[in-house]
Amino acid sequence: MIDRNEIRSHIFSLQDEKYREFHSSLVPGENTIIGVRVPVMRQYARELIRTWGDDIDGLIDEIGTDYYEEIMLRGMIIGLSGKKEPEWYYKHIDRFVPEIRNWAICDVFCTGLKFTKKHLNDVYEYLQRYLSSCDEYAVRFGVVMLLDYYINEEYLDKVFMHADSIRHEGYYVKMAVAWLISICFVKFYDKTKIYMEVCNLDDFTYNKALQKARESLRITPEQKEELNSMKRKG
User: What backbone phi and psi angles, to 5 degrees, belong to 232?
Assistant: First the structure.
């Protein structure tokens, strides 16, 4: 069976130095980036799962945490593990979230948790502990999960409610909430505009949400002009 050192060595063999330099500039303060592109890492995660078979728990435990890509790989394997019961995912999510130390690992992890689509209500209830957390990346995890899976007719009002109730001062929480609202504009422009007229978002998050919505190619020129007129003056 492949061990921890072999896994680490293989990750280094996949290194793209130019990508390492580029990606390092996007993740300030992270000095353990090896430089492997996300699709390449995801393919390696699938290979490891095939090699380890049913012992996914053992595989996750075997992967180190010293390097950025190792942590990302652990998160990918959780998401790619196959048809597991929600409780299995919750166990591993609860172990993984404290390992999140930057926006990139958080967001890639959320994208991979496709099991959520079949358990929307159950996962929504589970996410409450993270949305009310005091930890910056735990809250970001909850917000990005809302963004990835809950911007729909059924949950839209709840999404607005959470955006309004989060009071964490962390930069990466505020940016996640802004991103969340910008996607709400893309998918439900009129309803999101009504929300923004009465919302309790702080000025930074409010204006950043408008900015990110204006940057979307799915927002019309007329809507972009309207969004620009909604900006709060500081």
Answer: -80, 140
